[in-house]
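Worked example

This section walks through a single chain of length 116. The input is the sequence exactly as stored; nothing has been trimmed or padded.
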Amino acid sequence: MIHWGINALNHGSSIAVFDNDLKLFEFNKTDTLYLDSITRALEFSKPDRIFWYERPWLKKARQFYAGQYSVAMDLNELPNRYLKTIGLGDVPITYTRIMEVMQQLVIIQAHLITVL
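Given that input, the structure is written out below as tokens.
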């Protein structure tokens, strides 16, 4: 199964394409996840699932609390709406937190150590 990991719509952006546990592609860029990186990722395959870093409604609540009202109320800054604009609106999204990502990295690292 092809999975994409995406961090975007914030101060930095990145995308990684995985086929099960094998990383096929990685792109890191500041600010915006550009269409060329999406196009490059699509060369491998359309994802079966997207893992998106950060839960959007918690982010909106944090922005609102910080007084960033215009950003907090901008619903175009939601991942599902963003993905629709690039033709990936039908792909299921799993929202993650940094601790969940770090736990997965530790598991992958432990697996690699035992294999090597």
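What to look for: The CA atoms of residues 16 and 114 lie 24 Å apart.
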